[in-house]
Amino acid sequence: MNPFKISKNFKMKIHLNNKIIFLIATTFFLSCNKLVENPSSVIVSSQFYQTSSDAVAAVNAVYNTLNSDPLGDFPMYGRQLNLLADNASDNQNFSPSNTNPDVRALSTVTYVSINGRILKNWQQHYFGINRANIAIDNIATIPATVFTNPALQARLINEAKFIRALLYFNLVRLFGPVPLVLHNPNSVDVSTLKLPRSTTDSVYAQILSDLHDATSLPSNYTGNDIGRATSGAAHTLLSKVYVTRKQWTLAQTELQTIFNGGYGYSLFQNFADVFKKASKNGVEHIFSIQYATNGGEANTTQYLSQSFTSFNTGTYPIDIPSDSSIAALYDDNDTRKAVTFYSSQFNAVSGQTIIFHNPYTPYFNKFVDYSLSPLNNQTISGINYPVLRFAEVLLLNAEVLNEINSGPTAEAYNAINQVRARANVPDLSPGLNQSDFRDSVFLERRKEFIQEGQRWFDLVRQGGQVLVDALKKFSAKQSASLKDSLYPIPLTEIQLDPLLTQNPGW
User: Fold this and answer.
1) CB–CB of 233/220 below 8 Å?
2) CA distance 62 to 57
3) pLDDT of 440-462, one tens digit each?
4) What pTM value is reported for the model?
5) Contact 407, 433 (CB under 8 A)
């Protein structure tokens, strides 16, 4: 019997038993300001990790941190991270109906170190890291006499390592040097929880170590296991880490492994299928955050689908483009345009199609699945949130080849033109120099991945001045400066841990 079958459906509808929830809640790191008053009453890890079923539940709990919040706030993927990676970029702005000052500050680049959304991103990432640490440390201690499937035991550990690497990759790009926590705190001595920031290189070294271990994961799964991290996801994230570090040759090695590894990845013929319930976990999806469809269960709500939820109430969608120039980036024949934006809706109450005329049109449309009914219930539609997909592999390959060869090769053109062909736009014409081709790749990334948590990272890795210049093209973002290349360390965390230092300019 497969021990993983303790769950009828992996799609992140995991309800942990009370013991593991209590265990994890009492070991929350870097965001707690309360201590357990009676340590002797805590169920310690050695008491919980007794069987393979315990190990499966623990790793399911690690995945669970990606699409839900322990306090019922927005999930990390599907809203929270997008506020930093999209709303604080040149792509998006806050909805006029959004009165949250922290969200508005991110969109206007006026945020400060007490911003609650920045703090929540820090907390959610370390909460996920702590769950991963607990799983990695304790699954390995379950004796072989109990855990009779060593392949499953190793796989679960490496799944947790993949997620830990993903979370640290986000943190180091958002905040720079961050505390590197690799084990669950096992002491009630508060002083042991206070850690300084580790160097950027040491954080990246751990990310690479975890991802190299994760490359031994299965290449695919079946049944209820579909959606788990794979070796292909590990190689893809490795390539992205190397590109971020400008280690082009190492990135190319990983990309070739993806192309030649028999994974079967390809582009959907129809761009819209990337964001449909019926085609979730399809040929283009390398790693996605899984969302359920039953509104009565956990992990059903990803908030980027709220375009149609708000229409009949007279409010705006949850986020809007920075202005009408964002949609104008797309050719009229670009099939991504109609998937990404809308400028009209059919009002079932009046029986009329309403065409919007205001400074913010068109609105975002990407996570709306028109095959579902009713359209105004999109937040619990079950549409996944893509983190890694094959289109990015192609665009990373184009970028890497351009950098390695000091200019684009035929293969680089082929890679970017595959993405353009799927979008029904003409091939990129040959003859570009290295700089112009690089700009073309980043523009293609912008059009392909808008609202998918990529843009701020793409701007930053081109250089702080590129970020500032891009933001200042919009009147609402004139406060941008070079210090915005890193987010401030949340003041709350510095107050809890005096060993933490603040980023320059904050």
Assistant:
1) no
2) 9
3) 999 999 999 999 999 999 999 99
4) 0.90
5) yes
